[in-house]
Design brief:
Strand content: 5-15%
Number of domains: 2
Largest sheet: 5 strands, mixed
Strand order of the largest sheet: 2-8-7-6-5
Distance between the termini: 55 Å
Structural class: alpha/beta
Bound molecules: ligand F0G
Order of helices and strands: HEHHEHEHEHEHEHHEEHHHEHHEEEHEE
CATH class of the largest domain: Alpha Beta
Number of strands: 14
CATH superfamily of the largest domain: Type I PLP-dependent aspartate aminotransferase-like (Major domain)
CATH topology of the largest domain: Aspartate Aminotransferase, domain 2
Length: about 450
């Protein structure tokens, strides 16, 4: 069989600056050991996120040129609306400037103080928008997701009995059920169609809405096609349509599977919820036919969504992520398996077992990867988990992960080789790194973006 191969070639390049270790040590110290404070020119390979960092296609750039910038009734809005209707079956569309804006608008309608929003693991902005409204995000991900070594094809699945017991005990407090596909917080792990169907049945039994956080819906569909019984012969677009048919609505960060640099939307079945949300969209985002996007953004997004739901693109995308995973594994780096769709997650508790959790082993690894090779990664662990809103104690999630998120179509497999070699250099020196970091400044929620740290042994 022929190996996978990118179904595109490169037409434009952007130079990267290769710094020295001395430069990077000084820059990360000036950045107070928070990689969000680094300038992008100080980074060699940027695996901070797969969000908004993808390379658009020539067709998307062509769409940019033909975008319609009318305030109301933009042709590009209708192109986007038609594309989303074709892909999802949802009739009602509210464009937003990105995913968290979609959460803000939709949750302004759905979430009230004291309510519960159960689902698989919510993304941090999603949790932030729920907790900001003094409601509670309830994580019902299956237990297998918390063991980085255990094989399971759908680690993003919802634990049905846990969800059922929440509904049994407190149905009146449940605002709606949210499934994030793929599940970013659980490691870019997919959710099976069967699992969504079971959640749908529960939602129907208790009369609850089921919403999808669809940031990586196309990657999720790829995993269904390649791993779930009965879907091998179906097209990605058919799987996507079946998946969305089980939901009442979606929030979407288009910066991921929309392959655009900025953008998002809410798509809904219900006219009533659309009408209620419209008021908040106008208030927070913009008029209903642009909602925080330029016409050209919506035109590029419509094209991006069509490309992201092509099998050949998804195969090369997910194979590149797996290529990095295999390389890291060959160096003995402890990583989460099976590999996620958009990222490889290093298990920092296995990488630095001697660094106490209070000293943030995940962040320690993030800093070391940067110093060693200019790789920018992200801690998905205790710093990101914030403090408990009630007790104000640090929350220590089951996993302390470091995410290497791969932007779509932006890097080559040589970049993957370089990143894996960097991680192996850090692993060789890992016994010499005995202490981690302490916080010197933090915001009340979503502290990881603006926090400042210092080495504990300073
Ligand atoms: N939902 C999921 C599953 C996400 O991964 C993100 C963003 C959002 C919602 C929010 O969307 O950034 O457009 O406002 N995730 C990025 C990441 C930031 O790096 O994983 P946004």
């Amino acid at each position: 069989m022929l190996p996978f191969c990118e179904p595109y070639k490169i037409k434009m390049i952007e130079p990267l600056y290769r710094s020295t270790r001395e430069q990077r040590e000084s820059w990360i110290s000036e950045a107070r050991y928070n990689i969000f404070n680094l300038k992008s020119d100080q980074v060699f390979i940027d695996f901070l996120t797969d969000s908004g960092m993808g390379a658009m296609s020539d067709r998307q750039w062509a769409a940019i040129m033909s975008g319609d910038e009318s305030y109301a009734g933009s042709r590009s809005f209708y192109e986007l609306k038609d594309t989303i209707r074709e892909l999802t079956g949802f009739e009602y569309l509210l464009p937003t400037h990105q995913g968290r804006a979609a959460e803000n608008v939709l949750f302004s309608v759905l979430v009230k103080e004291g309510q519960l929003v159960p689902g698989n693991a919510h993304f941090d902005t999603t949790k932030g928008h729920i907790e900001f409204r003094k409601a509670f995000a309830v994580d019902c991900t299956i237990d297998e997701a918390n063991d980085t070594t255990k094989p399971h094809p759908f680690k993003g699945n919802v634990n049905i009995s846990k969800l059922e017991s929440i509904l049994e005990q407190s149905a009146d407090r449940v605002s709606f059920i949210l499934i994030t596909a793929t599940c970013n917080t659980a490691g870019g792990q997919p959710v099976s169609m069967d699992n969504v169907r079971r959640v749908r049945n529960l939602a129907d039994r208790y009369g609850k809405l089921l919403i999808i956080d669809a940031a990586r819906f196309a990657e999720n569909a790829y995993f269904i096609k390649t791993r779930e019984e009965g879907y091998q012969d179906q097209s990605i677009k058919a799987i996507v349509l079946e998946m969305f048919s089980l939901f009442d609505g979606a929030t979407m960060s288009a910066k991921k599977d929309g392959i655009v640099n900025i953008g998002g939307f809410i798509a809904l079945k219900s006219k009533e919820i659309y009408q209620e949300a419209s008021m908040f969209n106008i208030l927070f985002e913009g008029f209903l036919t642009y909602g925080g996007q330029a016409g050209r953004d919506m035109a590029a997004l419509a094209q991006g969504l069509r490309e992201a739901t092509e099998f050949d693109y998804l195969e090369s995308r997910i194979s590149q992520v797996a290529f990095l995973g295999e390389k890291l594994k060959s160096y003995g780096i402890p990583i989460q398996e099976p590999f996620g769709g958009h990222a490889i997650f290093i298990d920092a508790l296995r990488f630095f077992p001697h660094i106490p959790r209070e000293e943030f082993p995940g962040q320690t690894l993030v800093v070391e990867l940067y110093k060693a090779g200019g790789i920018r990664s992200a801690e998905i662990g205790s710093l990101m988990a914030d403090r408990d809103p009630v007790t104000r104690e640090n929350r220590y999630p089951a996993l302390e992960l470091v995410r290497l998120a791969i932007p779509r179509r932006a890097y080559t497999n040589n970049h993957m080789e370089y990143a894996a070699a960097t991680a192996s250099i850090v692993l060789e020196a890992s016994q010499k790194i005995r202490r981690g970091y302490r916080l010197t400044r933090e915001a009340p929620i979503m502290r990881h973006f603006t926090m400042e740290l210092e080495p504990v042994d300073l």
